[in-house]
Amino acid sequence: MNDEKLLKTFGFNLKIARLKLGISQENVAEKLEFSSVYISNVESGKHKVSLTNAYRFAKFYNMSLDDLLTEKF
Known about the structure:
Shape: globular
Number of strands: 0
Low-confidence stretches: none
Number of helices: 5
Oligomer: single chain
Number of domains: 1
Strand content: under 5%
Helix content: 55-70%
């Protein structure tokens, strides 16, 4: 999987996880101490994520990194 596809997949999976919880990007940003713009850019696949932040997202959504990186669409 190329970098662009990986970022899109990761972002899509984050968005689906967030929507399943019924929370806004602003709520996620507040809980993880990120900006809402950062959350939006990550979910849309426009921003690369550090391994540390990827782990923080996985932990927040109670998912594995593998779950967040696996193409489901």
